Amino acid sequence: MKKIKYLIAISAMIFATSCGDKYLDTENLYGKSLETYYSTPTDIDEAMAGVYNAIYTANVHSNEAMAANLMSDMMLGGGGPDDITAKWADNFEDPAEDTYKDMWSQSYNGIARANAIIEKTAEADFSKYFGSPEEAQKFKDQSIGEALFMRAFFYFRLAKFFGGVPMIVAIDDPKDVGRSTYTETFAQIASDLKLAIETLPEDSFSSIPTSSYGHANKWIAQAYLGRVFLFYTGYMTNMEGQATSTLPLVDGGALTGADVAAYLDDCISRSGYALASDFRNLWPYSYVNQSNGATVLPWAETEGLSWVGQDGHSPTFGTGNFESMFVQRYSFGDWGWSNGNIYTNRFCLFAGMRDNSLVPFGQGWGWCTVNPKLWNSWDIDDPRREGSIIEVGNADQGTGGYAGDKGDHETGFFNKKYTAIQHPENGGETKGMFVQLYGWGNADMQLMHAQDFIFMRFADVLLMHSEITETATGLNAVRDRAGLDAVSYSLNAIKEERLHEFAFEGLRWFDLVRWGDVETAFDYTLNVRNSGVDATYKANYRSEIKGLVPIPETEIRLANGVYDQNPGW
Predict the structure, then answer these.
(1) Residue 410: beta bridge partners?
(2) Count of C-beta atoms within a 10 Å radius of residue 217
(3) What span, in angstroms and rounded, lies between the C-alpha atoms of 302 and 306?
(4) Nearest 5 degrees, angle CA 308-CA 314-CA 317?
(5) Average pLDDT, stretch 199-222?
(6) What pLDDT was estimated at residue 13?
(7) What's the predicted TM-score (pTM) here?
(8) From residue 249, how far is each of 121, 184, 242, 361 by CA, in Å?
(9) How far apart are CA 286 and CA 280, in angstroms?
(10) CA separation for the pair 502, 74 (Å, rounded)
């Protein structure tokens, strides 16, 4: 219930700074004054909620997870005949010109709000609100460090999708600036993360209260520094053809692989995060069997699965989740709110089976159907195969009653990690899993998906460490959890492991880009069904776009020639 209240609160807090109709402009929506605000801990907490609010986007195709999955080689567009935006993203098209506008605008909203916290919190004196100077300083350090991390998070989101972008890192910075270079953009991201790591308290995960779950901490910043390092050095080397082994900083320095590996070592040894005992227990389908036994999901019952939950180490429901590090928190929607469906996990809705309301898998819109190549090439003894993919027409998986020919790009496979989950409530009406758990009054199938989206897991820290150090320890820890034999380190082993460990988690596309594999990843055709008609599918990736999406044309026009469109768009 704390999670529900938290998300409802931030949904109302789009305050202080928000992009208006002018180019990268900001306006004060609620009369909050920069001169008087940010002076109490309550002010800072409210302002920080506004920063996190900017992760959410109104248009679902502008959602980071949705966009990244649609562009990857392991998911197809899907949906119905009228779901053209899914097919545009899947096929690297943008006839609407503003497909990713919400991602752009919301990222700059978050950056502006983070800038205000960074500057104003540094000037504030919170001592009278705490029992000791040490407590006041710790609050200040957490707030500044968290805002630095979030600014890096938003700039990284922009850079991954759009490339070099305008840099605005202070309240009074001019807004009519051109795009920074790719290297300049990543230098700011890396510098923010490094300073966040140096500023944030060193509390281990188990000592952080559940009420703070979903907020950034030192260990999350370390993990993201690893991700940024690998993406930047990979992109520059493989997409730009400039061999690069270091991550630049704004002061002219740089971080080496050894530097970043040391941060990851620290995260591994001291953070308190750990792998879940069973990969499948990370996902909500592992909880369903606890309510209704084998009649709901025989496979989960037989496998003895038990959901770890999604509220940290001491969740309201579940056994305790020590693996999920940074997540996008979701709750329920309400059509009476402005953009009332953006705080429910629409990836679960849109990627659910189209027009099939089964138990335990509810119905959705059928986007992001799964490439059968993944299922067919995956080791049948790897439990992550059935733990990640729904195979239709399989009674043991709860899909024996599946009715096909409801949508496009049907392959017979859907993702199992993020999908609609439902079951009978006390033997009666079938309702969404989270509606039942939290006692939510609205059972609308479009508004019931309170599953958090995981941006960073501890498993990724282990695999990134192996990739940077070219050692097999982290790689084999993840394989051991899946019951697989140890292997020697190789980049190919890392590629295969990341594919299987993080399928449908929004990472595959960016891995393909940074490895330089995106050019060959789509060299295949598939037989699919389009609304009951046999068809052939092929995605048309174009090398000239260099793994980037188009900057919204609205933003380019408002910029009055300050910068140009990305190549190929």
Answers:
(1) 529
(2) 26
(3) 11
(4) 50
(5) 96
(6) 45
(7) 0.95
(8) 24, 8, 18, 47
(9) 7
(10) 11
Q: How far is CA 170 from CA 114, 118, 120, 293, 563, in A?
A: 9, 9, 11, 55, 21
Instruction: Reduce the secondary structure of 91-140 to three states and give it as a string.
Output: CCCCCCCCCCHHHHHHHHHHHHHHHHHHHHHHHCCCHHHCCCHHHHHHHH
Nearest Cα residue to 501 out of 484, 518, 521:
484
Structure tokens at 132: 């000791």
Region 224-239: what's the mean pLDDT?
A: 99
Nearest to residue 197, comparing CAs of 173, 171, 224?
A: 224
Q: Cβ contacts of residue 218 below 8 Å, gap of 6+?
A: 145, 196, 197, 200, 201, 202, 203, 271
Helix (H) or strand (E) holding 53, with range, is helix 41-53
Model confidence over 435-489: pLDDT tens digits? 999 999 889 999 999 999 999 999 999 999 999 999 999 999 999 999 999 999 9
d(CA 359, CA 361): 5
Q: Which residue type, as a one-letter code, is found at position 254?
A: A
DSSP 85: H
The residue assigned the tokens 């208006």 is: 20
User: Scanning the structure block, which residue is given the tokens 């059509």?
Assistant: 335
Q: Domains in the chain, please, with CATH?
A: 1-59+99-174+539-569 (1.25.40.890), 279-321+330-451 (no CATH)
Helices (H), 163-284: 182-199, 218-238, 257-270
Of the candidates 65, 101, 240, 160, the one whose C-alpha atom is nearest the C-alpha of residue 548 is 160
Token digits of residue 497: 């492991």
DSSP code string of 370-396:
BPHHHHHHS-TT-THHHHHEEETT-GG
With beta carbons less than 8 A apart as the criterion, state whether 262 and 252 touch: no
Write the pLDDT tens digit of every residue in 340-398: 899 999 999 999 999 999 989 999 999 999 999 999 999 999 999 999 999 999 998 88
Contacts of 258 (CB under 8 A, 6+ apart): none
